[in-house]
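Um, can you check?
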Amino acid sequence: MYSKDFERETQTTGDAAMQQTAWSSASDQDRMDTEMAIQLRIMLTPHFQEAKTWSELRSGLQGKGFYMKRAKGHMHLYDAQSHVKICTCAFLGFPAADLEQRFKRVRPVRKAPTRMMAAAPVAQH
């Protein structure tokens, strides 16, 4: 379970100065090999399985150096250091639809328009 590519990516080089990690460079260069995918799944699966809320899931992922973002109908996993998209959550075995059903999709709350002008008393002279 050891890869020379992983060793090269984790060494402190010019990539470290640019906030690159092994995960972000794997996606950036289309180099997410089977070994890296397995390592990612092993590391993150417990957080996906044990989380009871979106907040718990976000905290668990953040603790490992990742965050999620929804785009084009999919939930994507990003490297927190470089902000590079790594893969979809479905690739890890947790499709967006399943997560939304489990945690309930959070939709933006829109406030009803206020009618301040109609409610304000008109000053008479």
The beta strands are 66-71, 74-79, 85-88. The CA atoms of residues 26 and 32 lie 5 Å apart. Helices lie at 4-10, 14-17, 22-28, 34-50, 54-63, 96-103, 116-119.
